[in-house]
Amino acid sequence: MDPFKALDTIKIKDSLYKIYNLRKLPNQAKIERMPYSIRVLLENVLRNIDGKAINKEDVEKLINYNPKNVGQIELPYKPARVLLQDFTGVPAVVDLAAMRTAMGKLGGDPNKINPLVQVDLVVDHSVQIDKYGSSDALEFNMNKEFERNNERYEFLHWGQKVFKNFRVVPPATGICHQVNLEYLAKCVMTNDGFAYPDTLVGTDSHTVMINGLGVLGWGVGGIEAEAAMLGQPIYMLTPEVIGFKLTGRLSEGVTDTDLVLTVTQMLREKGVVGKFVEYFGPALDELTLPAKAMIANMGPEYGATMGYFPIDAEALSYLKLTGRTDEEIELVEKYCKQQMLYREKGSRAPEFTDVLELDISKVQPSLSGPKRPQDKINLSEMQSSFKADLNKPVSERGFELPAEKQKTKVLIEEGINYPIGHGAVVIASITSCTNTSDPTVLIAAGLVAKKAVEKGLKTKPFVKTSLAPGSRVVMEYLKKSKLIEPLEALGFYNTGFGCATCIGNSGPLPEPVVDAIDTGELVAAAVLSGNRNFEGRVSPHTKANYLASPPLVVAYAIAGTVDVNLITNPIGKDKNGKPVMLKEIWPTQKEILDVIKQSISPKMFREQYSSVFDSNLTWNAIESTDSALYEWNDASTYIQYPPFFENMSN
Questions:
Q1: What is the mean pLDDT of residues 434-450?
Q2: What ranges make up the beta strands (E) of 473-560?
Q3: Which of 6, 86, 352, 450 shows the smallest number of beta carbons within 10 Å?
Q4: Residue 266, class by beta-carbon neighbours within 10 Å (0-12 exposed, 13-18 middle, 19+ buried)?
Q5: DSSP string over 318-386
Q6: Burial class of residue 393, CB neighbours in 10 A (0-12, 13-18, 19+)
């Protein structure tokens, strides 16, 4: 249906696509002042008018969007695709399988039951770090993962064969949000001769990472995801949009992670639950796409429905870097410019419900913790903050430790023979799509490791170190840059391509370390490049958990404690016993960028993603039936035929 006569065409090379042209709608002046995220929603509603679930009136309401007085207006949203992961996604696939069984019982054709939009499930939540600090850790942990999850994996293996519009990215490939960013997302999709914005929902809260690439989407519950899979709209209240103006440039020595933690703190204090956040300002021309994706990723931590960066020149550069085709990139540029969805440098800011502002040149090196991601601590104040937290009452997110117990030291025995106290770093993990999607911070970590190894610095023997990249591309550029060797020398071997420590799959600590923590009732610490650090999430044995950039993770693995000021105190001693300061091993921005230019190419992404759905031989060897109907196992404790299809009739 086309009540606004907005149907139009756009030509890309030799291809002609139909589009619903926003420039043909009434009230153009108002549309041009809309936040970009609302314009995407407007196109979505316009294109999906069917006279039933979505009507002309829904478009008219959105055309008259007033950011200062949004009101309680219901909005039907039909995402173009759905992203699942292997924990929350399996129930959705089980329901599809159950629908096929019910269809068969009723005498119908079960092959007609399929998702109506593209659905991708990435297996990333199941790997646990059982082995670490050795070259065989990746294979060992992957084999354990398959052993523990055989039933689920057999079910998903069956599903990818029989369902149309359903793909599975196998285990040991990457994290769903990073795979989405680097490969799955198109920015502009094409289907049945139409071109339209790439939009999605996902069954994981950090689905919002893709907002950094200008793709609208967020995490939802299983019922909403299934509705989208079956072509039904998701109903939501039209959101307020908070504008976040970014100015300036990051200072020397400051990482994208430091910026992200600062933004998270500011937005959490502002209060943006149930709202969109949209970023604007001159700093968007300075930030890399991975930096924007990292900020977007933390949307759940700062409370917003999503944090949106409009498509711009940097988005196009990223699409090229990650191996997308010239035709795909040309389509994104021409379509978005035609549809007023492209942010030009120096363009006028949209009108927002409210505005925050940050001069990013004032951001300082920082961590967040010990119990919440929004509790940012400047690196220079880390030691004093930790000491204060030891004294604070639990009600103020402290540890309420009596003064006489604060100097407790316990000797770790059984081969380690090292005394630890409160603040001992027993987990140091470079983990999570939040940070491993950003080459600047991973190369920085590698350079810190290189300089540390050259000086003879070592990781403390009680630290459980791990590197869990969000995609296989990460390992390729770490190898090409020759930075994987110094990382491994400090214990940061690849332990698995998955969420790992970030979601609490840090695995067991060595028993002597646990015994020492328990004996001394120690407030042990974890430092990780993840996105959440609630007490008990990372490990049952780490009460203090700090989010930090990958280079700081390496630094704290060397220091072995958070009870140290890394600005004023040495991080350790070199091979000659001379004190070494953190600033001596910290890389410059030029050093980082030089390595990136020499080590990362589109070819690398194309090669790694050319066989993304079938490169895992263990996955390929799974034996699953080709039957259109799943063979339910009554003895299963995990996958059961759900009861809501029982006793159905024609």
A1: 97
A2: 525-528, 544-547
A3: 6
A4: middle
A5: HHHHTT--HHHHHHHHHHHHHTT-B--TTPPPPP-SEEEEEEGGG---EEE-SS-TT-EEEGGGHHHHH
A6: exposed
The first and second tokens of residue 586, run together, are: 């910290």
Find where tokens 């770790």 sit: 412
Q: Are 263 and 295 in contact (CB under 8 A)?
A: yes
Of the candidates 554, 321, 553, 546, the one whose C-alpha atom is nearest the C-alpha of residue 439 is 321
**Going by DSSP bridges, is the β-strand pair 366-368/376-378 parallel, antiparallel, or unpaired?**
antiparallel
Walk me through the domains of the chain, giving residue ranges and CATH numbers. 7-77 (no CATH), 81-362 (3.30.499.10), 368-602 (3.30.499.10)
422 within 8 A of 390, measured Cβ to Cβ: yes
Under the banding of pLDDT at 50, 70 and 90, the label for residue 606 is very high
Cα 290–chain centre separation: 11
Confidence tier at 415 by pLDDT (50, 70, 90):
confident
15-65 per-position pLDDT tens digit: 999 999 999 999 999 999 999 999 999 999 999 999 999 999 999 999 999
Buried b or exposed e, range 197-211, using 16+ CB within 10 angstroms: bbbbbbbbbbbbbbb
- The C-alpha atoms of residue 279 and residue 21 are separated, in whole angstroms, by 24
The answer to whether 211 and 307 are in contact (CB under 8 A) is yes
Which of 104-108, 360-364, 449-453 comes out lowest in average pLDDT? 104-108
Encoding tokens for residue 631? 């063979």
- Dump pLDDT digits (tens) for 321-358: 999 999 999 999 999 999 999 999 999 999 999 999 99
| Cβ 74 vs Cβ 234: under 8 Å | no
